[in-house]
Amino acid sequence: MTHVLHRQLRHDYPAATLGRGVAIRDAAGKEYIDASGGAAVSCLGHSDPDVLAALHAQIDQLDYAHTGFFTTSAAEELADEMIRHAPAGIGHVYFTSGGSEGIEAALKLARQYFVERGEPQRCHFIGRLQGYHGNTLGALSVGGNLWRRRAFEPILLGNVHHVSPCYEYRGRWSDETPDAYGERLAQELSDKIDELGGANVIAFIAETVVGATLGAVPPVPPYFRRVREICDRHGILLILDEVMCGMGRTGTLHACEQEGVTPDLMVVAKGLGGGYAPIGAVMVSENIVQAMADGSGFFQHGHTYMGHPLACAAALAVQRVIRRDNLLAKVREQGSHLSRRLQERFGNHPFVGDVRGRGLFQAIELVADRGTRAPFDPALKLHARIKQVAMDRGLMVYPMGGTVDGARGDHVLLAPPFIIDRATVDTIVERLGDAVDAAIAASRK
Ligand code: PLP
User: Fold this and answer.
1) Quick check: CB of 72 below 6 Å from ligand 1?
2) Enclosing domain of residue 350
3) Atom in ligand 1 nearest the alpha carbon of residue 269
4) Do both 392 and 267 map to the same domain?
């Protein structure tokens, strides 16, 4: 009998005992290919020797120093490294212990920026339906996944509004070009801002490439450029959530590089530390920092473990390995291979409606009927079945339900480590194909 309050109370979790490269082994000796990097976390796989050495070196030197008293070389060097490769205008990094904490900090930074500037009437945030930004109350409030919100709705922030996601497979009309679709969504945002009054809105927040809730959904090309223009017109901040899609996952260090936009605030996390330590960060544009420097002189926030030396040392080592080994080129190369193999296996599959993604961030969306795009009955919990059948076959993938509207729909997300090779990509697609077929067959009995 466990005393751990696990995520699922009626599920027996295997105990992970060893991580090596792209695989995790359990206590029974069974090996699993980590084709999802956990939840798009393990970008270097498990047990990278340089990251382990950096962690050992840091713990021998300094375990912890509270950021209210000290800075550390680990935090300073990591921030230098991140800013060296940051989008234009981003000049500072605020460290947190994960993605949700990063989103909370970004929301508060955005609010405080306007308080410092003498615009305290700005109090609204606009997010997107089906977006996911974390499970803390602020992050859950700006998120738009109905299932995740439902139980907590009465205690979520009231000053948050949602517009449609950029979800081409289901959102774009058949007679509409991608450009026109992007324009239509931009107009929806613009109308929402007008409804609230442009001078009353703090920020628009969105995942650059939507991860967990939609399954690796990239935007159509003009979308974010138009969003940026609209925000600028009203002096509204653009917060990009790259917790899952950032730090190289889509083939560029930041997913927004492929959109040609620069956010005012950007939150990164999972791939930053690659799972070697819990860490997230808010990347902050200089004008926001300057407003605080010219005003109160401090950011009214903070957490005990922010900028933890071990977490910063791990993340610095992870980022250096990615750069030294030119792993973003590998993400693009193996990402193309993965996308090709998924298309071959699932492109004509009777129950797969869409294969999508960028780099090593790919997904398939399951449908009961390809013609009508009707999802499977949610009561079947097909996503959960696929996860279990894949685990039985030694494969970790990241399936989720509620793809269509927070209740209906299923997809499977893949986010393997950047060190993956072609042969393992092939094995992943083969095992996933078997798992999908077996789970669907079992659900139809
Ligand atoms: N934002 C996005 C896009 C995420 O995918 C997640 C987690 O999956 C979060 C925020 C929350 O991050 P964390 O679970 O580290 O709090």
Assistant:
1) no
2) 16-47+326-443
3) 15
4) no
